[in-house]
Every structure is written in C-alpha cells, then in structure tokens.
Amino acid sequence: MNIFSHGDAALPRMLASALLCLCLNSHAQMNSSTPVPTGMDHSHMPAAVPSGAPVPALSLTIYRDAMSGFNLRLVTENFSLIPPPQGEMDMAQLMLPSTDRLTGYVEGHAHLYVNGVKIQRLYGNYVHLPDNLLRVGVNQITVTINNHGHMYWSVDGRQILATVFLQQGIEEPVVYRFESFPAPGQVFILSL
After folding, report:
1. Are the CB atoms for 78 and 55 separated by under 8 Å?
2. pTM, two decimal places
3. Nearest to 179, CA basis, from 98, 77, 108, 42
4. pLDDT tens across 113-148, in order?
5. How far apart are CA 76 and CA 6, in angstroms?
6. Rounded distance, CA 75 to CA 48, Å?
7. Rounded CA separation 173/146 (Å)
8. What's the confidence (pLDDT) of residue 186?
9. 3 state DSSP class of 21
10. What is the reported pLDDT for 18?
11. Nearest-CA neighbor of 47 among 186, 179, 174, 147?
12. How far, CA to CA in Å, does 111 sit from each of 25, 56, 103, 145, 185?
C-alpha cells in the first residue's frame, strides 16, 4: 500500500519535511538546556565519548508483535548495553565516562521515548511497545544511549540516537527513520 497513491509528487517531500520538523521539535524538547539540580534527571546533558574509544553506533528495527503492539530491537555497535553497577555509587561517579575493560567500548543503558515522552530505561536490546503507548496516526519512537549517570553519549557535539516514525494500520508501518550514528550494514526489511 502506497500512502502517496493519489499522484501528488509534492506530498512525499511535504510529509518528510513535516516528520523532520516533528523529530527536531521532539528532540529539542528531550534535550532542553534547563539546568538540572544534583540528584535529578541528567538525561539532557551530553557525555562525550572519550578520544580513543570506538564511536558507538545505534540503529532500530521494529516489527509487529504476534499478539499486540510492536517489538523494538536496538542494534548497537561499539557500545556495551548493561545495567548500572550494583551497590552504592554517588551521582558524580555515575556521570563519569566509563568503558568496558575488555572491549574499550563506552557503556551504559538506553532511554526509550515515545512521541517525545521518556517511557523507560533499557538494559537490553529488545523491548515490547504495547498498543496503549501509541496514538492514532504517526508515532515517533526515539532511543538514546546514555552513561550510567543518564547523560547522553555524544560525538563531536552530536547526540547518539535513533528514531523511527511508525504509523499503525498500514502495510509498512515505518514511514521514516533517522540515525545520527547508524550501525553499519543494517538492512531494514520488515516482514509483517
């Protein structure tokens, strides 16, 4: 099913422009420059990938769940997606760049946003998105990778994130995608 079937050649460009504006607006809302007091959410502050560490990559694949909703898969390279260390650590320690001793990759967890609202932290590569998280029409699903202090990883001032725009009720639900540092070799074929 082609959502641009009525023959208007300008419509795909207009839709892409509208989706890009939506993405940038939601991205700006997620990355407000409002100062955050100590002990609060630090997910809006950058953490630069240390020089010499491999640059992390992040891509997303999404497919319909057999029961309901969708399943989202995080495809990462050069990143150790793990829960925070156990035991007592203060926020200053958690905000420091940390790397996996074996691989040299930066480490941390991911944040899942649906339509600009932070839903949860992710410590693994798969998450189910129930239908009640999604609204009618186009939905923006964004994932960021973060250090254990919740600061988002960045390279040369660019946040590492991946976004898919999903529309329920059509054959190919992903209508647009954006990845600031895509995982190499990803082929995005949806089998529905």
Report:
1. yes
2. 0.75
3. 77
4. 999 999 999 999 999 999 999 999 999 999 999 999
5. 38
6. 20
7. 27
8. 61
9. helix
10. 42
11. 147
12. 18, 15, 22, 6, 23
